[in-house]
Structure to design on (336 residues):
Protein backbone atom coordinates (compact mmCIF):
# COMPACT_ATOMS: atom_id res chain seq x y z
CA UNK A 1 0.00 0.00 0.00
CA UNK A 2 1.31 3.44 -0.96
CA UNK A 3 2.15 6.00 1.74
CA UNK A 4 0.48 8.73 -0.22
CA UNK A 5 -3.20 9.34 0.54
CA UNK A 6 -5.53 9.09 -2.45
CA UNK A 7 -8.45 11.36 -3.32
CA UNK A 8 -11.05 10.86 -6.05
CA UNK A 9 -12.86 13.98 -7.27
CA UNK A 10 -15.70 13.69 -9.79
CA UNK A 11 -16.31 16.45 -12.32
CA UNK A 12 -12.68 17.58 -12.04
CA UNK A 13 -12.31 18.79 -15.63
CA UNK A 14 -13.44 22.31 -14.73
CA UNK A 15 -14.67 24.66 -12.01
CA UNK A 16 -14.87 23.61 -8.39
CA UNK A 17 -13.81 20.02 -9.15
CA UNK A 18 -10.56 21.20 -10.70
CA UNK A 19 -9.89 23.57 -7.79
CA UNK A 20 -10.51 20.69 -5.35
CA UNK A 21 -8.26 18.30 -7.28
CA UNK A 22 -5.45 20.88 -7.38
CA UNK A 23 -5.77 21.51 -3.66
CA UNK A 24 -5.52 17.77 -2.86
CA UNK A 25 -2.37 17.66 -5.01
CA UNK A 26 -0.90 20.59 -3.07
CA UNK A 27 -1.64 18.73 0.14
CA UNK A 28 0.32 15.68 -1.03
CA UNK A 29 -2.48 13.43 -2.23
CA UNK A 30 -2.43 11.31 -5.36
CA UNK A 31 -5.55 12.52 -7.16
CA UNK A 32 -7.89 10.70 -9.52
CA UNK A 33 -10.56 12.67 -11.33
CA UNK A 34 -13.26 12.13 -13.92
CA UNK A 35 -15.61 13.85 -16.33
CA UNK A 36 -17.43 12.82 -19.49
CA UNK A 37 -15.06 14.77 -21.74
CA UNK A 38 -11.25 14.52 -21.78
CA UNK A 39 -9.19 16.46 -19.25
CA UNK A 40 -8.21 20.03 -20.07
CA UNK A 41 -5.31 20.16 -17.66
CA UNK A 42 -2.58 17.89 -16.36
CA UNK A 43 -0.43 17.78 -13.25
CA UNK A 44 2.05 15.45 -11.61
CA UNK A 45 0.16 12.96 -9.49
CA UNK A 46 -3.14 13.57 -11.26
CA UNK A 47 -4.89 10.89 -13.35
CA UNK A 48 -7.99 11.76 -15.35
CA UNK A 49 -10.64 9.22 -16.35
CA UNK A 50 -13.29 9.77 -18.98
CA UNK A 51 -16.28 8.39 -17.13
CA UNK A 52 -19.91 9.33 -16.65
CA UNK A 53 -20.89 9.06 -12.98
CA UNK A 54 -24.37 7.88 -13.96
CA UNK A 55 -22.94 4.76 -15.67
CA UNK A 56 -22.80 1.95 -13.14
CA UNK A 57 -20.25 -0.22 -14.97
CA UNK A 58 -18.02 2.75 -15.74
CA UNK A 59 -18.02 3.81 -12.06
CA UNK A 60 -17.34 0.26 -10.87
CA UNK A 61 -14.45 -0.14 -13.33
CA UNK A 62 -12.97 3.24 -12.41
CA UNK A 63 -13.04 2.65 -8.67
CA UNK A 64 -11.61 -0.87 -9.05
CA UNK A 65 -8.84 0.63 -11.16
CA UNK A 66 -8.03 3.17 -8.43
CA UNK A 67 -8.03 0.41 -5.80
CA UNK A 68 -5.78 -1.81 -7.94
CA UNK A 69 -3.20 0.93 -8.60
CA UNK A 70 -3.12 2.52 -5.14
CA UNK A 71 -4.49 -0.22 -2.88
CA UNK A 72 -6.22 2.52 -0.89
CA UNK A 73 -8.75 5.31 -1.19
CA UNK A 74 -8.94 8.01 1.47
CA UNK A 75 -11.31 10.61 0.07
CA UNK A 76 -14.14 10.77 -2.48
CA UNK A 77 -15.73 14.07 -3.47
CA UNK A 78 -19.03 13.91 -5.38
CA UNK A 79 -18.82 17.16 -7.28
CA UNK A 80 -19.85 16.26 -10.86
CA UNK A 81 -22.98 17.85 -12.14
CA UNK A 82 -24.78 20.62 -13.90
CA UNK A 83 -27.70 22.88 -13.17
CA UNK A 84 -30.75 24.22 -14.92
CA UNK A 85 -32.67 27.38 -14.15
CA UNK A 86 -36.22 27.53 -15.35
CA UNK A 87 -39.70 27.98 -14.07
CA UNK A 88 -41.13 24.55 -13.33
CA UNK A 89 -43.96 25.12 -15.82
CA UNK A 90 -41.29 25.41 -18.51
CA UNK A 91 -39.08 22.55 -17.32
CA UNK A 92 -39.08 19.44 -19.51
CA UNK A 93 -39.19 16.24 -17.48
CA UNK A 94 -36.01 15.18 -19.30
CA UNK A 95 -34.21 17.97 -17.40
CA UNK A 96 -35.42 16.54 -14.09
CA UNK A 97 -34.30 13.04 -15.15
CA UNK A 98 -30.88 14.31 -16.19
CA UNK A 99 -30.28 16.25 -12.97
CA UNK A 100 -31.49 13.43 -10.75
CA UNK A 101 -29.25 11.02 -12.67
CA UNK A 102 -26.08 13.09 -12.34
CA UNK A 103 -26.50 14.31 -8.79
CA UNK A 104 -28.41 11.50 -7.07
CA UNK A 105 -27.60 8.36 -9.05
CA UNK A 106 -24.00 9.57 -9.56
CA UNK A 107 -23.45 10.32 -5.87
CA UNK A 108 -25.08 7.02 -4.91
CA UNK A 109 -22.95 4.92 -7.28
CA UNK A 110 -19.64 6.66 -6.63
CA UNK A 111 -20.14 6.58 -2.85
CA UNK A 112 -21.20 2.93 -2.85
CA UNK A 113 -18.21 1.76 -4.85
CA UNK A 114 -15.73 4.00 -2.99
CA UNK A 115 -17.01 2.87 0.41
CA UNK A 116 -16.35 -0.75 -0.60
CA UNK A 117 -12.67 0.15 -1.02
CA UNK A 118 -12.47 2.48 2.01
CA UNK A 119 -13.92 -0.09 4.40
CA UNK A 120 -10.80 -2.27 4.06
CA UNK A 121 -8.81 0.24 6.10
CA UNK A 122 -11.78 1.17 8.26
CA UNK A 123 -11.32 4.77 7.29
CA UNK A 124 -12.53 7.13 4.61
CA UNK A 125 -14.08 10.51 3.89
CA UNK A 126 -16.92 11.17 1.49
CA UNK A 127 -17.84 14.78 0.75
CA UNK A 128 -20.83 15.63 -1.44
CA UNK A 129 -21.38 18.98 -3.09
CA UNK A 130 -24.88 20.35 -2.52
CA UNK A 131 -26.08 23.92 -3.10
CA UNK A 132 -27.62 26.85 -1.25
CA UNK A 133 -30.57 26.26 -3.61
CA UNK A 134 -31.78 23.71 -1.02
CA UNK A 135 -32.12 25.87 2.13
CA UNK A 136 -33.18 28.93 0.11
CA UNK A 137 -35.82 26.82 -1.68
CA UNK A 138 -34.91 28.76 -4.78
CA UNK A 139 -37.72 29.25 -7.22
CA UNK A 140 -36.62 28.54 -10.77
CA UNK A 141 -34.52 25.62 -9.58
CA UNK A 142 -37.17 23.01 -8.80
CA UNK A 143 -35.37 20.17 -10.57
CA UNK A 144 -31.84 21.13 -9.45
CA UNK A 145 -32.87 21.92 -5.86
CA UNK A 146 -34.76 18.64 -5.60
CA UNK A 147 -31.75 16.70 -6.81
CA UNK A 148 -29.47 18.48 -4.32
CA UNK A 149 -31.99 17.95 -1.48
CA UNK A 150 -31.82 14.24 -2.26
CA UNK A 151 -28.01 14.43 -2.14
CA UNK A 152 -28.26 15.97 1.36
CA UNK A 153 -30.60 13.22 2.52
CA UNK A 154 -28.31 10.57 1.06
CA UNK A 155 -25.37 12.21 2.88
CA UNK A 156 -27.11 11.89 6.24
CA UNK A 157 -28.19 8.28 5.71
CA UNK A 158 -24.78 7.24 4.38
CA UNK A 159 -23.21 8.84 7.47
CA UNK A 160 -25.10 6.32 9.60
CA UNK A 161 -24.68 3.30 7.33
CA UNK A 162 -20.96 3.86 6.75
CA UNK A 163 -20.09 4.85 10.33
CA UNK A 164 -19.30 1.25 11.38
CA UNK A 165 -16.69 1.21 8.60
CA UNK A 166 -14.96 4.37 9.85
CA UNK A 167 -16.18 6.40 6.88
CA UNK A 168 -17.59 9.89 7.40
CA UNK A 169 -20.03 11.54 4.96
CA UNK A 170 -20.66 15.25 4.86
CA UNK A 171 -21.78 17.83 2.34
CA UNK A 172 -20.77 21.34 1.41
CA UNK A 173 -23.31 23.67 -0.17
CA UNK A 174 -21.59 26.47 -2.14
CA UNK A 175 -23.02 29.92 -2.76
CA UNK A 176 -23.13 31.06 -6.42
CA UNK A 177 -19.57 30.83 -7.74
CA UNK A 178 -18.25 31.98 -11.10
CA UNK A 179 -17.86 28.71 -13.04
CA UNK A 180 -19.26 27.31 -16.30
CA UNK A 181 -22.33 26.28 -14.31
CA UNK A 182 -23.48 29.88 -13.99
CA UNK A 183 -22.79 30.90 -17.59
CA UNK A 184 -26.12 31.57 -19.16
CA UNK A 185 -27.74 32.61 -15.89
CA UNK A 186 -28.75 36.29 -16.24
CA UNK A 187 -26.81 38.56 -13.80
CA UNK A 188 -30.01 39.86 -12.16
CA UNK A 189 -30.96 36.28 -11.18
CA UNK A 190 -27.60 35.81 -9.49
CA UNK A 191 -28.04 39.19 -7.73
CA UNK A 192 -31.43 37.96 -6.43
CA UNK A 193 -29.83 34.85 -4.93
CA UNK A 194 -26.97 36.83 -3.36
CA UNK A 195 -29.51 39.20 -1.80
CA UNK A 196 -31.02 36.27 0.07
CA UNK A 197 -27.70 35.19 1.59
CA UNK A 198 -26.24 36.70 4.76
CA UNK A 199 -23.10 37.55 2.75
CA UNK A 200 -24.09 39.40 -0.39
CA UNK A 201 -21.05 38.40 -2.38
CA UNK A 202 -20.18 35.72 -4.93
CA UNK A 203 -18.64 32.54 -3.60
CA UNK A 204 -15.07 31.66 -4.52
CA UNK A 205 -13.69 28.21 -5.31
CA UNK A 206 -11.35 28.63 -2.29
CA UNK A 207 -14.40 28.79 0.00
CA UNK A 208 -15.41 25.27 -1.03
CA UNK A 209 -11.82 24.00 -1.08
CA UNK A 210 -11.34 25.21 2.49
CA UNK A 211 -14.34 23.33 3.87
CA UNK A 212 -13.50 20.15 1.98
CA UNK A 213 -9.92 20.32 3.30
CA UNK A 214 -11.27 20.75 6.83
CA UNK A 215 -13.71 17.82 6.54
CA UNK A 216 -11.07 15.49 5.14
CA UNK A 217 -8.47 16.14 7.85
CA UNK A 218 -7.82 13.23 10.23
CA UNK A 219 -8.91 15.47 13.13
CA UNK A 220 -12.41 15.74 11.61
CA UNK A 221 -13.15 12.05 12.24
CA UNK A 222 -16.12 12.81 14.49
CA UNK A 223 -17.90 15.10 12.05
CA UNK A 224 -20.40 13.17 9.97
CA UNK A 225 -23.86 13.60 8.48
CA UNK A 226 -23.46 17.40 8.34
CA UNK A 227 -24.19 19.88 5.59
CA UNK A 228 -22.22 23.12 5.65
CA UNK A 229 -23.92 26.01 3.87
CA UNK A 230 -21.70 28.78 2.57
CA UNK A 231 -22.53 32.46 2.35
CA UNK A 232 -24.93 32.30 5.28
CA UNK A 233 -27.81 30.55 3.51
CA UNK B 1 -14.47 -16.17 -19.87
CA UNK B 2 -12.31 -17.27 -16.95
CA UNK B 3 -13.04 -20.84 -15.92
CA UNK B 4 -14.16 -20.92 -12.31
CA UNK B 5 -15.25 -24.20 -10.82
CA UNK B 6 -17.82 -24.61 -8.07
CA UNK B 7 -15.13 -26.06 -5.81
CA UNK B 8 -12.99 -22.95 -6.30
CA UNK B 9 -15.96 -20.72 -5.54
CA UNK B 10 -16.76 -22.58 -2.34
CA UNK B 11 -13.10 -22.28 -1.27
CA UNK B 12 -13.13 -18.55 -2.09
CA UNK B 13 -16.29 -17.95 -0.05
CA UNK B 14 -14.97 -20.06 2.86
CA UNK B 15 -11.72 -18.02 2.89
CA UNK B 16 -13.63 -14.73 2.71
CA UNK B 17 -16.03 -15.76 5.48
CA UNK B 18 -13.07 -16.84 7.63
CA UNK B 19 -11.52 -13.40 7.15
CA UNK B 20 -14.75 -11.61 8.06
CA UNK B 21 -15.18 -13.74 11.19
CA UNK B 22 -11.54 -13.12 12.14
CA UNK B 23 -12.15 -9.37 11.92
CA UNK B 24 -15.26 -9.68 14.05
CA UNK B 25 -13.16 -11.65 16.55
CA UNK B 26 -15.25 -14.84 16.46
CA UNK B 27 -12.53 -17.34 17.29
CA UNK B 28 -14.47 -20.22 18.82
CA UNK B 29 -16.21 -21.19 15.58
CA UNK B 30 -16.60 -24.55 13.90
CA UNK B 31 -14.64 -25.05 10.66
CA UNK B 32 -16.53 -23.71 7.67
CA UNK B 33 -17.66 -25.78 4.69
CA UNK B 34 -20.22 -25.49 1.96
CA UNK B 35 -23.09 -26.35 4.29
CA UNK B 36 -22.25 -23.50 6.68
CA UNK B 37 -25.22 -21.19 7.25
CA UNK B 38 -24.14 -17.63 6.55
CA UNK B 39 -27.11 -15.44 7.30
CA UNK B 40 -30.57 -15.80 8.81
CA UNK B 41 -31.51 -18.47 11.31
CA UNK B 42 -28.39 -20.15 12.67
CA UNK B 43 -26.15 -18.04 10.43
CA UNK B 44 -22.59 -17.12 11.44
CA UNK B 45 -22.92 -13.51 10.24
CA UNK B 46 -24.97 -10.53 11.37
CA UNK B 47 -26.11 -7.97 8.80
CA UNK B 48 -22.87 -5.95 8.97
CA UNK B 49 -20.90 -9.17 8.61
CA UNK B 50 -22.92 -10.09 5.53
CA UNK B 51 -22.32 -6.67 3.95
CA UNK B 52 -18.59 -7.07 4.50
CA UNK B 53 -18.62 -10.61 3.10
CA UNK B 54 -20.45 -9.55 -0.08
CA UNK B 55 -17.92 -6.78 -0.72
CA UNK B 56 -15.01 -9.10 0.04
CA UNK B 57 -16.26 -11.85 -2.30
CA UNK B 58 -16.90 -9.32 -5.11
CA UNK B 59 -13.34 -8.02 -4.76
CA UNK B 60 -11.80 -11.51 -4.68
CA UNK B 61 -13.75 -12.46 -7.83
CA UNK B 62 -12.41 -9.35 -9.47
CA UNK B 63 -8.79 -9.67 -8.49
CA UNK B 64 -8.54 -13.44 -8.99
CA UNK B 65 -10.76 -14.03 -12.03
CA UNK B 66 -11.21 -10.50 -13.47
CA UNK B 67 -14.95 -10.87 -12.95
CA UNK B 68 -16.98 -7.75 -12.24
CA UNK B 69 -20.14 -9.04 -10.60
CA UNK B 70 -22.58 -7.33 -8.29
CA UNK B 71 -23.80 -9.98 -5.92
CA UNK B 72 -26.38 -7.79 -4.21
CA UNK B 73 -28.43 -7.24 -7.36
CA UNK B 74 -32.16 -6.65 -7.42
CA UNK B 75 -32.91 -10.31 -7.98
CA UNK B 76 -30.76 -11.56 -5.12
CA UNK B 77 -32.28 -9.08 -2.70
CA UNK B 78 -35.87 -9.88 -3.68
CA UNK B 79 -35.61 -13.67 -3.84
CA UNK B 80 -37.83 -15.61 -1.48
CA UNK B 81 -34.98 -17.85 -0.49
CA UNK B 82 -31.90 -15.68 -0.24
CA UNK B 83 -28.75 -16.80 -2.06
CA UNK B 84 -26.85 -15.57 1.01
CA UNK B 85 -28.28 -18.29 3.32
CA UNK B 86 -25.42 -20.74 3.01
CA UNK B 87 -22.01 -21.00 1.43
CA UNK B 88 -23.26 -23.47 -1.22
CA UNK B 89 -26.30 -21.36 -2.17
CA UNK B 90 -24.03 -18.34 -2.61
CA UNK B 91 -21.59 -20.37 -4.76
CA UNK B 92 -24.48 -21.57 -6.94
CA UNK B 93 -25.82 -18.03 -7.25
CA UNK B 94 -22.41 -16.74 -8.36
CA UNK B 95 -22.19 -19.54 -10.96
CA UNK B 96 -25.56 -18.43 -12.36
CA UNK B 97 -24.40 -14.80 -12.50
CA UNK B 98 -21.16 -15.79 -14.24
CA UNK B 99 -22.98 -17.81 -16.90
CA UNK B 100 -25.40 -14.91 -17.50
CA UNK B 101 -22.87 -12.10 -17.58
CA UNK B 102 -19.87 -13.77 -19.09
CA UNK B 103 -21.30 -16.93 -20.68
N1 LIG C 1 -20.93 27.24 -9.44
C1 LIG C 1 -21.89 27.41 -8.58
O1 LIG C 1 -22.44 28.52 -8.43
C2 LIG C 1 -22.37 26.28 -7.71
C3 LIG C 1 -23.17 26.57 -6.59
C4 LIG C 1 -23.63 25.52 -5.79
C5 LIG C 1 -23.29 24.23 -6.11
N2 LIG C 1 -22.51 23.96 -7.21
C6 LIG C 1 -22.18 22.57 -7.49
O2 LIG C 1 -20.78 22.44 -7.63
C7 LIG C 1 -20.48 21.29 -8.44
C8 LIG C 1 -19.43 21.68 -9.47
O3 LIG C 1 -19.97 22.63 -10.36
P1 LIG C 1 -19.11 23.79 -11.03
O4 LIG C 1 -19.70 25.06 -10.58
O5 LIG C 1 -17.67 23.55 -10.84
O6 LIG C 1 -19.55 23.62 -12.57
P2 LIG C 1 -18.76 23.11 -13.84
O7 LIG C 1 -17.52 23.93 -14.07
O8 LIG C 1 -19.77 23.08 -14.95
O9 LIG C 1 -18.26 21.65 -13.47
C9 LIG C 1 -19.06 20.51 -13.53
C10 LIG C 1 -18.14 19.34 -13.86
O10 LIG C 1 -18.86 18.12 -13.76
C11 LIG C 1 -18.58 17.32 -14.89
N3 LIG C 1 -19.74 16.46 -15.12
C12 LIG C 1 -21.02 16.84 -15.39
N4 LIG C 1 -21.82 15.78 -15.54
C13 LIG C 1 -21.03 14.69 -15.34
C14 LIG C 1 -21.26 13.28 -15.36
N5 LIG C 1 -22.49 12.79 -15.62
N6 LIG C 1 -20.23 12.44 -15.12
C15 LIG C 1 -18.98 12.93 -14.85
N7 LIG C 1 -18.71 14.25 -14.82
C16 LIG C 1 -19.72 15.11 -15.07
C17 LIG C 1 -18.31 18.30 -16.02
O11 LIG C 1 -17.47 17.77 -17.02
P3 LIG C 1 -18.08 17.03 -18.35
O12 LIG C 1 -19.09 17.96 -18.91
O13 LIG C 1 -16.89 16.81 -19.22
O14 LIG C 1 -18.68 15.75 -17.89
C18 LIG C 1 -17.58 19.41 -15.28
O15 LIG C 1 -16.19 19.15 -15.21
C19 LIG C 1 -21.81 20.83 -9.02
O16 LIG C 1 -22.28 19.72 -8.27
C20 LIG C 1 -22.72 22.03 -8.80
O17 LIG C 1 -24.07 21.65 -8.71
C21 LIG C 1 -22.02 24.96 -8.00
Amino acid sequence: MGDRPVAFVTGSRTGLGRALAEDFLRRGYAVEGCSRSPAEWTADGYVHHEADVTDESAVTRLVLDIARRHDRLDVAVNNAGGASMNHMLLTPVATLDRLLATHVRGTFLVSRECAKVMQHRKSGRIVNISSVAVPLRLEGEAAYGTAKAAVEHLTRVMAREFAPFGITCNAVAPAPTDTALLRGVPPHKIEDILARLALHRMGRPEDVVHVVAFLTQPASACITGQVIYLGGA
Amino acid sequence: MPAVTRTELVALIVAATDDVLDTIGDEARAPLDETTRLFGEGGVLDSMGLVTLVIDVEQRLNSRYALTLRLADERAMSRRSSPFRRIDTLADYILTLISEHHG
